[in-house]
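Table S2 (continued). Query chain:
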Amino acid sequence: MAATPRRALPGSILALLGVAASLALASCVARLAPPPARTSGEFSDGRELSDRSGLAELRAAADAEPEALLLQWKAGTAHLRATLRGDVDQREHAERYLERAWQLDPEAERVPAARVLARFLNMRSSVLDLSRLDLQLELYASLVEPGTATRAPRELEPEQFHLASFRQAAVAMRRYGEGRSLAALRELDALERRMRARTRAHPDEIDTHTMAGNFELTFAGVIPIGRAERLRLGIEHLEIQQDNWDQLSPRARNTELAPNVRSVFALFLAEALLAAGDSEAAAGRYRQLLGFEDAPETAVREQLRALARHRLANLDAYLGDPELLPPWPAGVSGCVACHSREAVLPTDDLLLMPGATLSPELDR
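Corresponding output:
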């Protein structure tokens, strides 16, 4: 099916590594560059997404007392929230103040700066921006307990397993950045094996199914070898997640922090089923997304609903199309999609049939 071009914006820090590794296997390794950075204007639709005057005051206070931990933390988290709401031009401020907070409190005795900043830096590495990768690896090294990498996945506490998984992904990214694409692929293969072992040993750990499903669908979209199996596993993980949503950790399903998170993952699952060629199951999941009664009404949710309606009306046109993977929204847009109430997602990386129109919010 001919469709609008998609920009390569993967949904996790692992995505473009698979592209690099598969190119290496084909003996035609290419150095991939990150796509152009997103800007706040791409998400704002002409509206203000955050109180910039308040942010300026926080920056001034933090810069006036750079040794004051709580001022750095307050400024960093405020700019982080603004970024996740779609004002992505605030990202560098968020990183700067959170890094200062971590340096002032490296053991997290007062604030969890290392954990927050390590995950926030995925917004860069998800689109192959390796400029802060060394810092990210240092942060994960401070968070992952010694010996974790050599212990069986089933033996780890859930948080340590998740942190170790993100660290392993960052190591793979470093291998890729060093030009060692096959070594990067080996790291990814090892990570997949550990995720499978973990979910087999802890089938009721819904947060881990969420992480594994996201990773597997990303891999399915960018690594040709083993795509069908990864797609099957990703669907299986997200079916478990969606059908056991109330068993997610409270923070993971907190709609005050991330109002659209369930709708985003519901769309991921529906798009994956459509890519797998299961029109009946895909239709059921699109309808499930449309029927969520407790989902906050946001601009992003209206976009996701519009897309679900479009897919339902054109299932056969998209059925089995591998370009549905990795699922949209991805990369920086994926972070904003979960967290924002006001932002409108750019759709230049969304797969649409020629001439398709959805709703005014998506016609950008």
